[in-house]
Amino acid sequence: MSNNKSYSYVSVQNTSAIEFSNIPMLSYEVFTEQVLAYFNAKDEIHCLQYFAIPKDKGFQFIIILANDATHEILLFGHEIQALNTKLESLTQHINAFHIFEREIHENFNITFLNHPWLKPVRFSENRADKSKKISNYPFYKIEGDELHEVSVGPIHAGIIEPGHFRFLCHGEMVKHLEIQLGWQHRGIESLIITKNKWLQRSILAESITGDSTIAHSLAFTNTIESLAEIKLDDNLILERSIALELERIAIHTGDLSGMNTDVAYQLGSAVFGALRTPIINFTQRWCGNRFGKGLIRLGGTNYPLNNDLKIDLATVLIEFEKKFKEMAEKMFNLPSVIKRFDGIGAVSTTKLKMLGVVGMVAKAGGISRDIRKSHPFLAYQNLNFEHVQFEHGDVMSRGLVRYHEVLQSISLIKELIKLHKNEEEFQKPLYQLNLKSNKFCTSAVEGWRGEIVHTAITDEKGNLKQYKIKDPSMHNWKALELSLRNLEISDFPINNKSYDLSYSGHDL
Question: Is 176 part of a structural domain of the chain?
């Protein structure tokens, strides 16, 4: 255990398992003071997770803070002994905590005093107060004879997941956007605990959100393998890192296609859409599924990256890179695209920091935040690269992040392939695992959207007793709301696509 003046915490590295009893439990007064001291003193501190666990007649709270400068993860917590306890909100001091406290309030009906808006996160079936329903939800109102509401969803014209968007407009100008999700809450966290076969749990993890199959699977396997003290060979580590970068290339390329569609640039839409295909087709040749389902398994793999696949991948990337760069240069220098991208949907760095945004949205808004660099995992511990970053927080910056990250991912994959050895023997998946008892582990993975965080706690018998998941969309939906203020409602499609947030990753 470490001490910082009068404060206590335990410091760990990403994916390291520790004794749960080593996490210090503080009084709420000291807990709050300590959190505020960290955030006020250091810009590089941000919160990975903050959640409650039922304990006896009360709750135990765990906070997981990331120090992006020192690569440390700081753990500490507090307890309450009664169900009706009211706590002073952290959000009134640090706005980024709004989503964590809202989720705790929804799940357990714990009141946070002076929270600016304890609105539900997802109206989950296991919410504490069943009287609160979407049918009687008090959406935000602005009174005025010249104002009107535009409601979109939850069922949309396209084949997308359900979500409700309520625009308050003055003519065509959006004054406020409120997004309400939670329409298909699946109970993933509780299912991972209650299912008793590890293959079932692996399939659940890779199904959290389909466009981040690899990233969520890696967060899950990293966590469980650490709790089971499983060591991976070098080739498997390299293969998992390659798979993660391939996922980044495929989704970023598809999103560039979608962004071109939303500004009616048909050539860019068609070319980027076509370019995505050879990437996901390679993933299908590798493991039988275009999105990588079945590729990541606990303790090993059924689909080693053999020499033929490596040669195939190298060829695919050479052909892809040339066409991708050519199309991207045309797109980002075309006046009609620039007019629809540049300055549209801008959110200031100050506001993005207040919201605690992560991943692509942070990197597009001048915030240095990439788990591959700040808390390296898998092969990233031995790779030397600088993460992509732009400053303006607008549609153009979000598009440029995608463009440059695709090129960077290609470079990283080439480097990883060089390190990969041609070996006939490989680690096979493990379907019978014994986790260490009374342990705690958190794993953060930089998916294409941003940081994905999985946390697990075991009981005295080594069974999972708590499993907590955070998709980057949890932080970034609020930024999408702000990006529409004082824009015409017709700017919503391109703003929405430039974020490409996950409904299912949020709803769980």
Answer: no
Pairing of strands 25-26, 72-80: parallel
Domain count for the chain: 2
Mean pLDDT of all residues belonging to the chain: 92
What's the pLDDT at 425? Answer: 86
∠ CA 496-497-500, rounded to 5°: 90
Q: Is residue 314 part of a domain?
A: yes
CATH number where 69 lies: 3.30.460.80
H or E element: which one contains 177? strand 173-180
Overall residue count recorded for the chain in this entry: 508
Triad 284, 290, 292: Cα angle to 5°:
90
Does residue 2 carry a pLDDT above 70? no
Amino acid at 289: N
Q: Quick one: DSSP state of residue 97?
A: G
Q: What is the CATH number of the domain that holds 372?
A: 1.10.645.10
* Helix, strand, coil percent content, the chain, rounded in steps of 5: 45, 20, 35
Distant-in-sequence, close-in-space partners of 169: CB < 8 Å, separation ≥ 6: 147, 148, 149, 150, 175, 489
Do the strands 439-446 and 17-19 form a parallel or antiparallel pair, or are they unpaired? antiparallel
Q: With pLDDT > 90 as the criterion, what percentage of the chain qualifies? A: 80
> Could you read off the pLDDT of 21-36 as tens digits, one per residue?
999 999 999 999 999 9
**What domain range includes position 238?**
188-507
List the structure tokens of 121: 């996160």
pLDDT digit string, tens, across residues 408-455: 999 999 999 999 998 888 999 999 999 999 999 999 999 999 999 999
End-to-end CA distance of the chain: 33
Residue 459: which of 442, 438, 440, 441 has the closest Cα?
438
- Compute how many other C-beta atoms are within 10 angstroms of the C-beta atom of residue 130: 8
Whether the bond between 138 and the residue before it is cis, its omega within 30 degrees of 0, is no
For the question of whether the overall pTM of this predicted structure is more than 0.85, the answer is: yes
Please give the Cα distance from 107 to 61 (Å, whole number).
Answer: 13
Predicted pLDDT at 145: 85
